[in-house]
Design goal:
single chain, alpha+beta, OB fold (Dihydrolipoamide Acetyltransferase, E2P), Glutaredoxin, five-stranded antiparallel sheet, binds copper (II) ion
């Protein structure tokens, strides 16, 4: 009997320790929001894709309580070594760290024995390769499209002919700091840089992936948050067909999943002649880099890098 009692007490003590650790962590999560502090979420998911060069892993994950519903998304890792020995299809337990400005997968562990709790509905409905294959190549003419801007006015891509157009995709409710919020932060800096160097010769265009929620008044409020000057930075949304069309031009995957939108990132530079100049397919571009590409496009000069 005695060893059994000892075991029971030990088990109870362990449980108490775990419970209080969880309680402390939860209090920590809700109370601490200083920028330096990372919120850690422990999540179960299944691997859908691995890209060691881009340092991203595509995961179908279950609900992250109080943060994000179950969905499939590409998440960055800081350390490519984390991706070693992982195989598409494997089930994993991972840690997602989120700060005010960034989010990344910091730890991954295989959990092959656990049955899958990841819902099938978080699967992309079309293969990503197929979406990619249909997108425009650099040098190709970008066909015109029609959207509605933050003032409720109809805008066409051809309205901006003669200017360098930088187009990206966002939605105002996006919770991940290094996805849509980063795109908008970068655009704000890009707007500053370009309005100094090329006033009236450029146009920034942020297209919403969530037209049902991102009505003109919502976009207008969002634009104000980033101090966008409506003169050269438009926020716009369209009906389903227009959005699918614009996203299709640049091979952007996006899908509504449990109320949020799972999506990749695409930022395109369209020249004053309406041709696609360059396409950035992740969040690693900098305002400085895009400014340089805009400069090359507008002046026809390539920066000579001295070595
Ligand atoms: Cu987003």
């Amino acid at each position: 009997m005695k060893p059994k009692i000892v075991l029971t007490v030990l088990a109870a003590l362990t449980l108490a320790a775990v419970v209080s650790a969880v309680a402390i962590r939860q209090r920590h999560l809700s109370l601490n929001s200083s920028p330096a502090h990372a919120h850690a979420f422990q999540v179960h998911g299944q691997i859908r894709g691995i890209d060691p060069i881009a340092k991203t892993i595509r995961l179908s994950h279950e609900e992250i309580v109080n943060y994000m519903p179950a969905m499939t998304m590409s998440l960055p890792v800081k350390d490519a070594a984390l991706l070693r020995n992982l195989v598409v299809g494997e089930e994993v337990q991972f840690e997602l760290l989120v700060t005010d400005n960034d989010s990344w997968v910091s730890h991954i562990e295989k959990t092959q024995s656990e049955p899958s709790t990841v819902q099938a509905e978080t699967e992309p409905t079309r293969p990503l390769e197929e979406i990619e294959a249909e997108s425009l190549r650099a040098g190709e003419m970008v066909p015109d499209f029609k959207l509605t801007n933050q003032d409720g006015q109809e805008i066409h891509l051809t309205d901006f002919r003669g200017k360098a157009v930088v187009l990206t995709f966002i939605y105002t409710r996006c919770p991940l700091p290094n996805f849509c919020p980063l795109m908008s932060k970068n655009f704000a800096e890009l707007e500053q840089r370009l309005s100094r160097e090329f006033p009236n010769k450029f146009q920034l265009l942020s297209v919403s992936l969530d037209p049902e929620f991102d009505r003109p008044e919502v976009l207008k409020e969002y634009a104000a948050r980033y101090r966008a000057d409506p003169k050269d930075w438009s926020f716009a949304a369209g009906d389903t067909d227009s959005l699918n069309f614009v996203a299709g031009l640049v091979g952007l995957y996006f899908e509504k999943q449990n109320g949020l939108i799972s999506h990749d990132l695409r930022t395109a530079l369209i020249g004053p002649d309406g041709r696609l100049v360059q396409l950035w397919k992740s969040n690693v571009w900098t305002p400085y880099e895009v400014q340089r590409s805009v400069r090359e496009t507008l002046t026809g000069h390539t920066d000579v890098v001295s070595r």
